[in-house]
Each structure stands twice: as C-alpha cells, then as structure tokens.
Amino acid sequence: MELQEVNITPEHPLLNSKHTHFEDNVVECSYIQGGTTHKTKLNVTIQGDKTKNHAMVTFHDIGLNSVSNFGPLMNSESMGPVTQKYCIYHIDAPGQEENAAKLPNGFVYPSMENLSDMMPKIFSHFGLKNAICIGCGAGANVFTRFALKNPGMVEGLILVNPTILPVGTVSWIGELITNFTTPISEQVLNYHLSKAEVDSVSQELVETHRKHFKQNMNEENVQTFWKEYERRREINLVRPIDPQMPDKTLQCQTMILVGDLSPFVDDAVEVNSRLNPTKTTFLKMADAGGMVLEEQIFKVAEAFTYFLQGLGHIPGVMMTRLARSRTISNSSTGSGDGDRKRVRTLSGGSAGSPHHHHADEIIDVPAKHNDKAQLVSGAVC
C-alpha cells in the first residue's frame, strides 16, 4: 500500500459548538487496489486545541458522517470533561462529508483495508504519535484493522457496533432482493435499527436522521461506500489460548459498546470473543440500539470517561464531577435506582466500575427514558 498526501486545504467546519474551535481539512491520498494506483480525499475536521497532550480520532458508520455520527455526543454537556482534555480529529470516508459532490464516474472506492492503511499517514501529517481511536460500524472495522497492524499508534480503542466477519452470502442475497424496492434512506435506517427497535426508538431521532440523510448526504456516494463495506474481508483476530502461541489479537486497551436492541449484538460478541480478556471491556447498554451514541448520550459519556480514566487520562476529580451531575439528575426525576449498573458475568458474578471488567464479562447498563437524547438540528448543521 502506497499512500501520498498531495495537499491539505482548509474548508468550512462540519460540527457546530459555541465553545470549541473547529478546523476543516481535506487530505488527498493515493492507494493501490487491483494493482492500480488510485487517488481520493479524506475530509478531516479538527475539534479543539491541537496543543492538547492527548488526541482522539473518530471514524463514522455507513450512511452517517462525522456530523451525524459524533456531533451530538461530542457537543453534549456530558462529554465536556472529555472534550476539554483532547484534540479530536474527525475523519470522513471519501464522499461522505456534508453536501459532498458526487464521486467521479469509474471511481474505485478504497477497501476497508485501504482505509486502515491511510491512518498512519493521517497521524503523521498532524503530528500524532498515538491516539484514542473511536470507530462506529464501518469505522470500527477500519480502526480494528489499523490497531492490529499498528499497535503502537493506538493508545486506546473504542468500538461501537463492531464487526470483523464478512457479510454472509444468504444475508447478502436477502438484502439485495429487499433493496430493489426500498429507498436508500430507508435502507440506511434498516441497517442501523433492528425490527424490535423501530417501534421503541424515538421517532424524532429517526425523522431527524432521515431528514439529515436526504438533505446532507450524497445517496450515490453512500451506496458506493456501503457496497465496498459489504465486500470486506474477515479480520484475522485470534485470542491467544496458549501463551506460547503467536499473539494475533489487539494489543491496546479496548472497549466494545453496543445497545441491547442493536442489530449488531451478535457481531459485537464475536469481536469480543477474539480479544484479550485482560485488555477488553464489553458494555451492552440497555434501552438502546443501533444508534446508541445518540440514544444514550449521558450513559455513553460516562462509559467513555471511565475508560479514559482507566488509561490515566481523566483525573478522579472529573469523575467526581460527573457522578455529582448524575446524582442531581436522579434526584430531579425522583429515581434513585434507575442509574445503577447491573453487571452480569459468564459466571454470574457482579462487580463495580466498567473499566475494571474484562472481555468475558457483559456489563448491562440500564437507563431511564429521560436519559435519551435526540440528534437535534443544532448539533447537525
């Protein structure tokens, strides 16, 4: 894989926040597929101060981008203790940024492997030696590949709705038949939301995502990205059983996050089974599904903060402040038990904070209805 940066030019910011500085960049890269060199552009939005000691890098899922996938969470008050500590680099896959022009005719979309191979050059250009990587869906697949090949560059990995297996043939044929008569905007919603979740998730959230997709996303570009994602190959992760065996799993601290109604629960469990249990936390969040980052903003922010505290990035005073905020929220709603975390392990035991748990433990995080947060227009524009 050869990747070359040609130029970087500033453009309009993609995420809105009254108190955060944003800088938008376009990184032009080259990659090899089928023995031929191709070129593409990655939109990279920098959120915050580049002089911060720690960095985060995000990569979005299908039908979403850095705005709709991470904007509501990163601009929320609950994430304040985190975002003020990091400079965040939001990466958009080719043609997935806001109001993107149609990709050129004959454009060969980079594979998930190609995209993962672009990350070291992105890091190098912005002077990042390592970072916390946060990927959702397709973005989680890209960052898993990146972390496996470049363990020293990933200080911590947060995988939301992750997959490592290829699309099954039967599933692919079924989707192909259904998609003949289903608009692409509905296909995207069906991809993110399970049938059980459609009736329970906030209709305002669904309608806002549907509107954002129709008004801000290029449908043909999304379909091209989606088709390439469905052609993905399996990621060769193997949990070491014998200490003498070669280690073919991730080396970094990893948190897997999935909603209990998500269509990706089985995929997340499969990823979990391939990782080192001493370095992995698996969180299954109650009252949430495929759009867990928007459905449970406060709970996700809390999980992120615990994980980062475990890495030594977030001091205890920050956690005290977050806990106090949650206590105030509980007292205002008259519910003292709704926020307690229920921990279920394979052995049936229980424990405390999320960052103490390993990959063979499933941490169920219940949530109250008033914890839900919708994707509001102020966070999308």
From TrEMBL:
Superkingdom of origin organism: Eukaryota
Q: Where is this region: Disordered?
A: 328-357
Q: Record's Pfam families? A: Ndr
Q: Which family does it belong to?
A: Belongs to the NDRG family.
What is the name of the protein in this document?
Answer: N-myc downstream regulated
Organism, scientific name: Clavelina lepadiformis
